[in-house]
Amino acid sequence: MVVGLAPAAHGGNRTGRFFTGDRSGDWLYAAMQRAGLANQPTSVSIDDGLRLRGAYVTAVNRCPPPANRPTPKERDNCLPYLVRELRLLSRAKVLVPLGSFAWQGALLALAALELELPRPRPKFAHGTEAAIGPYILLGCYHPSQQNTFTGKLTEEMMDAVFERAKRLAR
Fold it and tell me: What CA–CA distance (Å, rounded) separates 61 from 70?
């Protein structure tokens, strides 16, 4: 399960599918295709033929945040959606939060499932792993232009996260 921040105003919010029709999605779905988790490297619309294999993409927030800066209050208001998805996707084993905001949201969702969180709470970093109940959180930088254009996140780094996620899910 890939956990993003929120739908982009001109991407997922417009198209009806997270990471669809924006540059972050282009980066994400290309990595997922290279890992064998998607049948194509891009997603431009909800009916473009994209199919995921053994993967699910969601987000902590359900609405695009003003100025692309979600608040903890918005996250907390949307948290029941992520909790419900976790309950429904009983085969999910690995959560890949994209960025620290999604990492915190995933931790809160797992706590809402009444799973005991380690103390101190695991901190986000790219490649960090944390076992919580039946889940493993695997941190990944968000594929935003800010991260990909500056080299903070490279294709190799994202590919390594998805390969690790596949190994952990087996």
Answer: 8
Q: Which residues contact 66 (CB under 8 A, 6 or more apart)?
A: none
3-class secondary structure, 120: coil
Those residues whose C-beta lies under 8 Å from the C-beta of residue 28, and which sit 6 or more positions away, are 2, 19, 57, 98, 143, 158
Q: Which two tokens stand for residue 59?
A: 């987000």
| Kind and range of the H or E run holding 86 | helix 72-88
Q: Are 151 and 135 in contact (CB under 8 A)?
A: no
Q: Using CA atoms, how far apart are residues 99 and 133, in angstroms rounded to an integer?
A: 21
Domain region containing 49 = 2-169
**How many domains are contained in the chain?**
1
pLDDT in tens, 17-70: 788 878 899 999 999 999 999 999 999 888 999 999 999 999 998 887 777 788
pTM over 0.90: yes
Q: Select from 43, 46, 19 the least CA-distant residue to 142.
A: 19
Q: What is the pLDDT of residues 150-168, one digit of tens each?
A: 999 999 999 999 999 999 9
Q: Residue 25's domain is classified under what CATH number?
A: 3.40.470.10
Using pLDDT thresholds of 50, 70 and 90, give the confidence band for residue 72.
confident
User: What's the CA gap between 152 and 60, in Å, rounded?
Assistant: 22
